[in-house]
Amino acid sequence: MRLAKLVIAILAISLISVNVKAQNRYINDVQLRLDSNVYSLRYNSILYQGSKHLNFYYDQSQPFAVVELFPNPEMLNNIKKIELMSSGDFEKIDSLYLFDSAYYQTKVQFFNLNESQFLKFVFKITLKEDMGEIMFPVQLLPYTSTSADLYIEDNQLFVGEQKSFEIITNNFYNIRFNNAWTKKENYDYRLDVNSGKLMLYMLPHETGNITLELDLTTKRPTFHDGQLSFTLSTIKKDFVVKASRLKFLSLDADEVEIMGPDKDQLQVQIDNHPSLKMNKTYRIEDIEEPGGELVGELFVRRYLNNNRVLAWLRTYKYHQQSDGYLYIKDGDEALFLTNFNIVPPPTIEHVTILRQGKEWTRNLNVHPGEEIEVKIEGKSLHRSNFQFMGATLISSDSLLNNPNRAVVELQIPMNIIEKKVEIQDNGENTGFSLNVNEYQKPRKFDFIAINYGEGKRLLNQIEQPILYENTIQDVIIDFEPEVIDRQNDLYGRQYISIDIKITNKKNELIELRELDNIVVCPGENSPRYNNYLSPVCQIDNIQLNQLIRKKTYDLPEWSKIELTFSHIKARYGGEGIEKTIEIYNKRSYGFDIDVSFPAGLIEITQPEEGDDKVSNLTGISMAALAQISFYHKRKIARYQPYKIGIGFLAINAFNFNANETQRDLGIVILGSLYPTTKDVKLSFPLFIGGGYYLNKEKLFFVIGPGIRLSL
């Protein structure tokens, strides 16, 4: 059996070693400098709880430290940058800089090494050429020097009398203790802090010799014989217990509240004694000698069958058992000893909450499904029994709880109905509560769909301008509420605005409209659906033609419908998403009337009998054409460099010589080629085409340059 356990341990250590080597592909070493000491991950690490830790010594709980990270020189060229991730356990004083192309360095300050749990550095290594990121964690294990001993001058104790001793320690903040009483066979003891000192309180029950053996544990380990240890050396002391000088009478309550103006006396039971007189009031003072301050009064009423006496107790002053004994007096004469705590009623002064990765805050707004820690600060809280109405108590941290503080971990149910989580103490409202707010986070626009004639398209999937070649009958904006919330991923109501801008192909404004404060509520699949219901929720789709004067089906070619969707950032603390889509009324061709002036056309006509000329160079002609232009398929409102038209061509129209015989009018089909694709009024095209002369009654073909004037 032992051999099997040994083999398993060796395999575990081997796997850890292999994993560390894989991580160290990019990092050779991490060093920590505190004062003049240097601690290295390579040389000062230790295997603790199954993982490798960088251990280092500290003597102050909030020290400054220099962190140095040494990358593998062979992999340095693959590293784009390295970052030290933020943590709630330390503050980054400097950024992480690369020095001499050899190592990275930064400076940090730890917040509280005595209290920090699971302490570690996490380095994010960003690689070049989109090779991704690597998280490199370095587990930290701080240790310190802690000693404790008990020095006593008088080892005499008295039965029923509590006595306190100071434990001399160099670091009592590192000592872990519980202030509850520990019961032994013939004595009780407890530890507590009083005036910045760690005190031991002992209460013997029987006479004789007793030996105290006190084992103290620490929050941070110490080194003993090269090994980590959370246990200090046992404190062993001998005491002699004698009979009490004054008879000790114990109350049936170790702790009572001080009497307020609205409270009556408290009924208690106290030990019986022959010297006690019924129907008599005794003073309770804090010193044995006469003239002590009045702490309370005890009115003895009658005997009970259990050898105890029923009495009324009235208290006037706070008292802690650690402050010393209380004396029951008849006038100024001390007759008996007693001791109990007189504390203020439970009072809440502050309530704060903590979310994972955040800091404590007094903002008591919570959300359904959240897990939070709640810290209640005040007085006498150890007497309280807190209930959080409507919330689920996960745990209560007994190590952090004391009379002035209570820490609990809560979960706010996903289906909580109440708007407030009332904090009650023993069934009574304390006046403090947690406000239950619905989630209100901006969600990416995957719950909005656009339909312009080709079916629904999700807004977040549209990345390029939309070129729609058919008539845009309408633009319909649909909302899909079921997408917003998931079972464990809530976003809440989405407050958005839509800006509508319509322009023609010359970017001249046709329409401008703004839809403000549109509220889209999550659908029925949301666990918070019933809490979102409101008359302001947008249920129907939005049809653009119902909002604009110039309808989409009447828009001229290459008009642009620009829709800008944005979260109303005031609702989200300045956060939000903005998305703009552009829908163009695309056309493949356009129709216009052109007047051109071809000059120097080469005219080719059918030769007559006996005529050997097949071509002439004409003078300035005039062409009036109904012309079709063609748009570029992949560009917005850009013409192709060619056109085709049909119309009339007046050959030599500007030659007014009376003897001119070449002037004629023809019906033509002309193609034109332009040196530019820009939409300009004046250009110089190249013409090619043919037609039929009306005078000569013959076909002809022409080619040549011209001047084009677009109307």
Mean pLDDT: 84
Ends distance: 101 Å
CATH class descriptor of the largest domain = Mainly Beta
Portion in strands:
over 45%
The biggest beta sheet reads: 7 strands, mixed
Helices and strands: which structural class?
mainly beta
Looking at how many chains there are and whether they match, the oligomeric state comes to single chain
Biggest sheet strand line-up: 23-30-29-26-27-28-25
- Kindly give the count of domains: 6
What is the CATH architecture term of the largest domain? Sandwich
CATH topology of the largest domain: Immunoglobulin-like
Relative helix content: under 10%
Number of helices: 2
The count of strands amounts to 57
Shape annotation: elongated
In short:
With 711 residues, the protein is mainly β. The protein has 2 helices and 57 strands.
Description of the molecule:
With 711 residues, the chain is mainly β. It has 6 domains: 18-143, Immunoglobulin-like (Sandwich); 148-242, Immunoglobulin-like, CATH 2.60.40; 247-343, Immunoglobulin-like (Sandwich), CATH 2.60.40; 356-372 and 389-436, no CATH class; 448-585, Immunoglobulin-like; 589-710, Beta Barrel (Porin). 4% of the residues lie in helices and 50% in strands. The strands form 12 sheets. Strands 23-30-29-26-27-28-25 form a 7-stranded mixed beta sheet, with no helix packed on it. Strands 1, 2, 5, 7, 8 and 9 form a 6-stranded antiparallel beta sheet that branches. β52 and β53 (639-651) form a beta hairpin. The model is unreliable at 1-23 (pLDDT under 50).
